């Protein structure tokens, strides 16, 4: 099987290593390529990949929206979220999906973090945040609050949050609030190499019994370390990263992959970022 990652500048991505581990666990003979390409050749390259025998590919920023007009059809989650991170090439065409949505769900389930009936706060308004927000809405979170430096500055994002029934506030308002049940960081604050950063204050973090950080490098961000000092249940981004890759492999192969495999690969990958 041939697969790969589409992006503009990919640098040191963890995706090839993760997919190679998935191939081994499934007993599949496959390759996973890094596919850097400019925006103006995106349509042409998608056709070439299909012709060259690729089963599928993942898509990373900044192309998660740009690939959508060139696909035969798009899944419900990807269409509502407005972003595609997985493409499956078949004889019928190229089909788009968003496995960040399911990967986040698997990560929460494995960590024992429930969101139904809970007050959830999401930091950030990027593509990953949209997948997380949609998941929280679909799983019946009691309330969803999105925090950004400039609330209501993105017309399309405003329409998305309004449809869901989420509210938008700034960081000062969050610091003055009473907290909530689940805090999810979808910003890069605290990511390598600026690992001393933290998106919110310790007092704010202490007001949440569950804290999730989508960052996986480093394994333990300042946000998560602070949350654990206050007794919170925590989860970093590695399990979600592996789970969304597994979700892509399941689409490409039609085979279900056991949660134990996801957990094992996540543990192996986490050792690289300790």
From TrEMBL:
InterPro entries: Aminoacid_DH-like_N_sf (IPR046346), NAD(P)-bd_dom_sf (IPR036291), Sacchrp_dh_NADP-bd (IPR005097), Shikimate_DH (IPR011342), Shikimate_DH-bd_N (IPR013708), Shikimate_DH_fam (IPR022893). The active site is at 64 (proton acceptor). Pathway: Metabolic intermediate biosynthesis; chorismate biosynthesis; chorismate from D-erythrose 4-phosphate and phosphoenolpyruvate: step 4/7. SUPFAM superfamilies: Aminoacid dehydrogenase-like, N-terminal domain, NAD(P)-binding Rossmann-fold domains. Keywords: Amino-acid biosynthesis, Aromatic amino acid biosynthesis, NADP, Oxidoreductase. GO terms for biological process: amino acid biosynthetic process; aromatic amino acid family biosynthetic process; chorismate biosynthetic process; shikimate metabolic process. Pfam families: Sacchrp_dh_NADP, Shikimate_dh_N. It comes from the Bacteria. It catalyses: shikimate + NADP(+) = 3-dehydroshikimate + NADPH + H(+). GO terms for cellular component: cytosol. The keyword Ribosomal protein does not apply. Belongs to the shikimate dehydrogenase family. HAMAP family: Shikimate_DH_AroE. Involved in the biosynthesis of the chorismate, which leads to the biosynthesis of aromatic amino acids. Catalyzes the reversible NADPH linked reduction of 3-dehydroshikimate (DHSA) to yield shikimate (SA). This is Shikimate dehydrogenase (NADP(+)). It comes from Megasphaera hexanoica.
